[in-house]
Amino acid sequence: MIYWVHIARSIDRAVLHRERCSEVPSNYTRSDFWEGGWFDYPDKERALVALEQSGTTLQMKCTLCRP
Ligand SMILES: [Zn+2]
Asked: Which pLDDT does position 30 carry in this prediction?
């Protein structure tokens, strides 16, 4: 299963999502890691590492899809 990390630099927050979460945009444009955006990872371990390395103050898991 693919996991998504949504990095929002403007609000200093990163959120982990599962593949089929309704919050994951179907048409997304791959964005810059340092500017923020949606990033996909092939497994949860790598997604969690990316979450930790995002550098944001708030790092959380989505309450909708509960990854
Ligand atoms: Zn979610």
From this structure: 64
CA of 38 to the centre of ligand 1 (A): 12
38, 47 in Cβ contact below 8 A? no
Cα 67 to ligand 1 centroid, rounded to whole Å: 7
- Structure tokens given for 22: 């309704």
| 27 phi/psi in degrees, rounded to 5 | -115, 100
When pLDDT is averaged across residues 4-33 and rounded to a whole number, the result is 89
Residues whose beta carbons lie less than 5 angstroms from ion ligand 1 = 17, 21, 23, 62, 64-65
